[in-house]
Write a structure and sequence with these properties.
alpha/beta
Amino acid sequence: MESLGQVLKQIKGPSFLRKSQDIADELLRDPIVKELRAEHPEMDETRLRANLPRLYQYVNDRRNCANCPGLEKCPNDFEGHYSKLELVTQNGQLELVERKAPCSLQVAKRNADQIKRRIRSFYVDERALQEGYNEVEIMGKDRLRAPAVNQVFRYIREVKEEGLSTKGLYLFGSFGTGKTFLMSYLLHELAIVGYTGVIVYMPEFVEDLKSMFQDNQKLKDTVEVMKNCDLLIFDDIGAENLSPWVRDHVLGAILNFRMNRKPTFYTSNYDFDGLEKHLSFTSKDGEEIYKGQRLMDRILPFVDVVHLHGENQRRIRS
């Protein structure tokens, strides 16, 4: 958008003064300026004429905002912001001061960016975290899910009202019933009120840990993130191919640190008995029941169980 100075520079010859006067008169007659004067009757015409460039910017920004083409195509000089005029007293005199204020779209984007920064995902489809969430849609897709959905909603509400608990949720059920989606919803809702979260897709995470075995700093940083975030979700636990090192020295260390400190959440196709059997077996050492039980002692007492019934939504969509 051109400034008033740029517009006046295009006027040449003897008509310059007359044309500049016409622009000023037209600007003062503009309904937006009249509205401003009605709000600030103490602002006389002399003061306005002394601030024509600011008025010009103010009127153009207001007009652009009234016909907003969206944040990415914002025509204002400062994207996502508009000029705001205020009367302030400086050196005993009233002065018109211009400030840049964020529009509602910019505020919404800033809030959304802050939410994204609070959530980290390891190997989870980002679309699960970035899609819009509609509670009515979540509940309405499959009525069989209603008891589990209500339990997740209740957990979110209690954290918002009473603060973070040390107890998480263990969400289990058949394939495609929406376990990951519900946990992503929980992360998103609690990130809005300031909590940080990490969601980890276990099968790929465990595979990637093999390469981290040679990179101690990356492994240490990853484990520290998982230990210290407010909300940690192990997604699809039980589907990974465990090694003794991953089970005992990575997963065990994370859970040992978090228990009685911060809540950990799980999604799985297994109930507790099935998960214990899975955790008791590794590809290297075979069955080690006591080691599976040891890990379960760091899971079972620190979660409420949510059994998610329902149809396979992936098959319905396909």
